[in-house]
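Quick look at the format.
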Amino acid sequence: MIRWCAYCQRFLGEVEPYQDMNITHGMCASCAKVGLEFSAEIEKRIYFLSRLQTQLRDLQFSHDIELGKRLVDEGLSQGVRAIDLLLGIVTPLLKKFDASTDGLAIKNIEKNLAAICEYIATKANLSWPQSLNEATPDILFAAPPSNQHLFYLKVLELWLRDEGLFALSLNESMTNEKMQTACEKYQPKVVGLIMSVNTEAEEINQLAQTARETLRAAPPVIFVSGTAVRNRLVSEKDLPGLSLIYDEPQLFLIIKANLALGFFYDLKRNANKPKRNHDDQ
């Protein structure tokens, strides 16, 4: 389920059951310190978020982008942060349909959601980051050649940049040659590979091997996430030597903490520890 703070309207991450994309509520650490009490106003906020999610979900099939923009404006006017709209409303909708809908329908859904996300970014003065010649990125996101779901990479990139990390997603599906070029150019500390279906396993393994060989002087941490991992369609047997990440928000918090310290813990060990919510950090 998608967990939000009922008081400040901030996205807190996902909790079990993960297949359920409906909204549930709790309280973040900041609001808990203040000692806020439940009120009729808080109840209205809870109802508002659930209604907004339902309306945006229906919008995926109506193709009414103008209505989507009005819904976004309504959310922002209620004090919901743009990045939280992206992570806690829009992206979970894509995950839900990506796991159960045929390819053509998914592409249409992605097109609608991408248009909404671009509008959110514009309204909040966020920019869709480009592949700029900046300092070494903390995390480089990429998708295998057969994976066309690049929209999800951009959302992850915006999220991590909002969290203070230099994340960079490559705006094209990666061949081994392109991965080699990107690793030589950016020298990333972490490589995140996104996997939508289990048939991409061979491509993922090849991309990971290319990244290791190219960056052998300073080997990056490589992890795999996405719908195929999330729905347990693949295992470590299919992706030997790679960290499979089922709880993406937790992994990103681990990466952020370890980048600050200047080193990485064993990601597999940390990823398997009891899950903590965003507000516990």
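Next, a different chain entirely:
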Amino acid sequence: MALAWWLVALSGAVALVYSLASAAAPMLRFIAALAGLPLVAAGVVMGAALLARAPWSRSAHLLLGGAGLASCILTLPSAVLVLYFLSRQSGRSFDESPDNDPNETPFPRVFEIVFSVGLVTSMALSLGLAYAAYSLRQDSLLALRGPRLAQTERAAVDRMRRMADAEEAFRLICNTGYADLAALLHPTTVMSDYPENGPAFITTELAFKRAGDHQFELVTEEPMPETAGCPTRRFRRYRYSATPVGGRGRHFVIGPKRVVHFAHDRPATFEDPFIPR
């Protein structure tokens, strides 16, 4: 039992060393020092008192155990503390009367085993919950902000969104159907009534297959039948993808929903995580 308090003191000492030697933000160092000092003091005092069988340490452990019962994580070791320090053997062990046997163990073996198992289980559960909370926070930040993008990746994502906007503008002509690259560049080839000098849906620069560190490709799927008043060449779906040169890094893809999805070191699909606008 005293060993557990020495471990508490050790953890506090680690926090103090971190607060003095770390290059972290001042606030983090202050919090580490604020937590470390009480842990060192409590660990040293309570461990020494337990070894000396100081009567007041029994009451202190009962108070700590009672408080720990209310916490889900420390319920098991706290229950062991309360049960033992309320027992008759505990009363005899911490009694200062001359009849007290100094060789009698103040913490029976069965209680040591149960307490140790409970403490280890509680620490493992605490670490597990902390990791789960961290992972959930990271996932939430990713969903809210999207991944951190390099400058070339941001340029690629911006290019893809411009292509998706052009496809949406083409679709609005007949409220259905998407264009291939040639139709976006030369609308008159698919619309006889389109002004000869009218603007194209995309610029020539957007039609380049490579820009920055990515290769771009527009793929159309399922040709649609011709309909009066609509472009002569339309498709039900399209997929515009960006592949990093060399294949290593983030891959991107966008489609009719105009949402950019990404994947690492492999072609992205519409089931992969997306980048919020």
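The longest strand covers residues 214-223.

See the schema section for token definitions.
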